[in-house]
Amino acid sequence: MDLIANRNPFVQDSLPFLTLVEEGKVKLFVSEVSVGTLIYLSFERYKLIDAKGKLLHFMEFCDVISGGKEAFSISMNSDFRDKEDGIQYFTAKIHQMDFFISRDITDFSSGKEKFPVLSPKDFFAS
User: Fold this and answer.
1) CA quadruple 45, 47, 48, 53: dihedral sign
2) Rounded Cα–Cα distance for residues 45 and 39 (Å)
3) What tens digit of pLDDT does each residue of 37-89 get?
């Protein structure tokens, strides 16, 4: 959301990901549930000017993955307080992603031991 809404100062931490994608060095994946959340936040919560254009542009950099019923079930039975975060996390884990990126890593503390969760700053610092 930081990239789509150009939220300062956080957007500066995430912009390098787009450069890495453009250079073919990484692939970005976003969970299907996150896409729904991005749409809702862009249109309803933040009421972004040209929300559609911003979302379409952002999605040019991403592949969408789904965790389906499996991620849902695991999340519902997990220690995640925020079950939506759990779906995102377990979707990444099911698809054997190398790590999970989120600015708010405290929301993912239930899963950090099992799967690496990094903030954009942590990712680029390593």
Assistant:
1) positive
2) 9
3) 999 999 999 999 999 999 999 999 999 999 999 999 999 999 999 999 999 99
